[in-house]
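Q: What structure does this chain adopt?
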Amino acid sequence: MFVLEILDKAKHDRDLFISQNDVLTRYLHVYANQDVKRNLAKVYVAVKEDQVDGKKKKIYGYFSLSAYSLYCYELPDNNDRGEYKQIPAILLGRLAIQKEQTELYGY
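A:
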């Protein structure tokens, strides 16, 4: 079974992660920790629940979330939003799974 954890370079082995998309692989290897440090995103990784403690955990997938806002004029007119010009939202910035998992499950 997989569990989600917040990315921690001390606990998770980013170097072993390879996605079918080079851009998504590079993001995890190079940019994810930078985005976390600058509070631009939270990055969550999927790891196996029963991985041995003391070793870096293998990452099977990841996603990033960022704060976002939408201008009300961009939304359908059927909802009254009062005086708000913007409403808060969450942006799913990146989503990737390990290449071996895509081949195993046919994604």
